[in-house]
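Sequence and fold:
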Amino acid sequence: MSNSPPPPPSDPSQVDATWLAWHLRETGWIDEATIQSVRCEPFGESIGFLSQMAKLVPTYSAQSPEHPQSLILKIGTQDPNFRAVADRLRAFDREVGFYQHIASQTPTRLPKVYAGNAEGGSGWLLMEDLSHLNRGDQVHGLSNPQVETALGHIAAVHATFWEHPQLQKFAWLPEHDFRFREDLSDTWPEFRDNYGLRIGREATTLIEWVLTNCEQLDAAIAERSHTLVHGDLRADNLLLGEVGSEDEVFILDWQTVTRSLAAIDVAMIIGGSDPPAERVGHYEELFEAWFDTLSGHGVQKYSKQDALTDLRLALLSCLRIPLKVFHELRGPSFRNAREAQLADCFILRHTSAALEFDAQSAMP
């Protein structure tokens, strides 16, 4: 076998036996066995913004229980708009860096990673096939118990890396680098014309305040306690198994991992994936479940009032997500029904969550 890796595929359908065997042998997952062929299977509906995925099923010359019988290939998106976002965020640098340097210390179940390479916004990962589990769906949303379970897992991650100096050592791990943190003022007029009546005057006023005062808001967030933050915690990035089992929750897609305010993850999943009709009357319980897990995992000198202030700041910051999604999905001329549904979910859920939690009271 050549000492140099074969050229990476640009599409999952281009994966061949030589490329897959080289990388599995390089990382010690196969030894003398060869891969005779690879079958590529579509992996459900393409719902990722920054990447695409497919299931790979190799045929080996000699079988061993140690050989991966199927794998998931995650590779850069072909959509030019999202590819530009992935390049700017250096999405695969962050995700490959996370699995290589941090995943082993992370107190939540993660998929095995067999091999990976970062090439700026592109790159690829070969991962454990977990397609037997249920995948969260952003449009369908999550139940309150599912949100609470996910919050318990991410709170344990937040606690493990709370103000941890190790996080500053990784060049691939930026600070406060979220895909929605950009100037969205040009998007606002068209967004307001299409959604102003649906979100209501109070939410409209709140978004206008955020757009006008985003630098002040970001500065306030920068002064708060920091930890490892997933950065895109929502239903589409979760796998859900049997409650109470080892596979209860998998948090996937660490391409937006960053150092920032822990409550950003809380605002994202409550505001993005918990339908208002499901959340109403229970939002305080969800917040307390996250806070109690932080405390139970040793986070000290962080009061419930501190946490609530952080959540309100995060909910304000996340009000930029509806505009970002509207822009990225080319609203109001969405290409298909699912994109229109996704936009509605992000927009209506995030705005209602900010109002329910009285986010405006944290305006710096």
